[in-house]
């Protein structure tokens, strides 16, 4: 299935946003390994919408994402996609995670210039546009579109996961998470169908807050959730083994 972002997915941020353009997937467009893709805002969003959100995006602005596509990717086997929100200006894949992407037919995409100093609204919008950018050249499984982030990126991921509950079917919050945002009953019910992993370390300064918000999720009826407290880990990303466990949880289906 060729995944395309539709306006309703970004309505929580920008009423009436429209995504432009159609594309045809061809083998010649496929790249493997680590690389960058860039798209002009004007190619992604209608001019009238850009004007209405000029406080966030500029018409002449380009967005660059870092991507990783496993060598085993095949167009006839739609891949999952993990949108990773970095706390730094550079998009990247955390060290040691590559084998998990290879094993799980999972693509990574992470926006550049989307670190903690970037306004939250813009970071969320870049996360929401990422699946569209990835689907230009890759077949994606809509049931395996996930969002994650570390530290401040984890907080943004936790907001995006709920605001865009039609888009992101799962999320991994790593050493950073915000409380559930106020959303309407329909979106909250939709979010309850998705899956969420909270990752923290016994030495992480955000551990207590992570545990508290996990408990709040439980109290609000979010049942498909998992808390991982990794012994000896500080404020850092988990290793390959723990990341694999998190992906396995998201990939579970009833």
Could you write a compact summary of the structure shown?
With about 250 residues, the chain is α/β, with parallel strands linked by helices. The protein has helices at about 40-45, 45-50, 100-105, 120-135, 150-165, 185-190, 205-220, 240-250, and strands at about 35-40, 60-70, 80-85, 105-110, 140-150, 170-175, 195-200, 225-230. It starts with about 30 loop residues before the first strand and ends with a helix.
Description:
The chain has a single domain, classed as Alpha/Beta hydrolase fold, catalytic domain (Rossmann fold, 3-Layer(aba) Sandwich). It contains eight helices and eight strands; from the N terminus they run E-H-H-E-E-H-E-H-E-H-E-H-E-H-E-H. The protein has helices at 41-44, 47-52, 98-103, 120-135, 152-163, 185-191, 207-219, 240-251, and strands at residues 33-40, 62-69, 79-85, 106-111, 140-150, 170-174, 195-201, 225-230. Helix 4 (120-135) packs across helix 5. It is globular. Mean pLDDT is 88; it is low at 1-24.
Number of H- or I-type helical stretches: 8
Secondary-structure-derived class: alpha/beta
Roughly what is the average pLDDT, rounded to an integer? 88
Give the uncertain stretches in residue-range form. 1-24
Taking the sheet with the most strands, its summary is: 8 strands, mixed
Number of strands: 8
CATH C-level name: Alpha Beta
| Strand line-up in the sheet with most strands | 1-2-4-3-5-6-7-8
Q: Keyphrases for this structure?
A:
single chain; 254 residues; alpha/beta; Rossmann fold; 8-stranded mixed β-sheet; disordered N terminus
């Amino acid at each position: 299935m060729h995944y395309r972002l539709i306006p309703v997915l970004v309505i929580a941020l920008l009423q009436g946003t429209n995504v432009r353009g159609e594309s045809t997937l061809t083998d010649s467009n496929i790249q493997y390994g680590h690389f960058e893709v860039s798209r002009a805002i004007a190619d992604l969003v209608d001019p009238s919408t850009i004007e209405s959100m000029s406080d966030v995006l500029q018409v002449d602005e380009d967005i660059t994402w870092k991507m990783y596509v496993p060598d085993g990717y095949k167009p006839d086997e739609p891949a999952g996609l993990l949108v990773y929100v970095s706390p730094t200006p550079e998009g990247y894949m955390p060290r040691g995670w590559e084998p998990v992407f290879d094993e799980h037919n999972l693509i990574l995409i992470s926006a550049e210039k989307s670190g903690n100093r970037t306004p939250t609204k813009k970071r969320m919008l870049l996360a929401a546009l990422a699946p569209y950018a990835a689907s230009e050249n890759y077949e994606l499984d809509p049931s395996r579109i996930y969002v994650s982030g570390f530290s401040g990126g984890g907080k943004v991921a936790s907001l995006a996961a709920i605001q865009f509950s039609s888009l992101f079917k799962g999320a991994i919050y790593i050493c950073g998470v915000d409380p559930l945002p106020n959303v309407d009953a329909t979106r909250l019910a939709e979010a309850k169908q998705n899956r969420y992993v909270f990752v923290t370390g016994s030495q992480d300064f955000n551990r207590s807050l992570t545990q508290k918000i996990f408990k709040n999720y439980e109290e609000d009826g979010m049942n498909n959730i998992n808390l991982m407290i990794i012994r000896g880990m500080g404020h850092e990303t988990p290793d390959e083994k723990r990341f694999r466990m998190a992906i396995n949880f998201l990939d579970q289906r009833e």
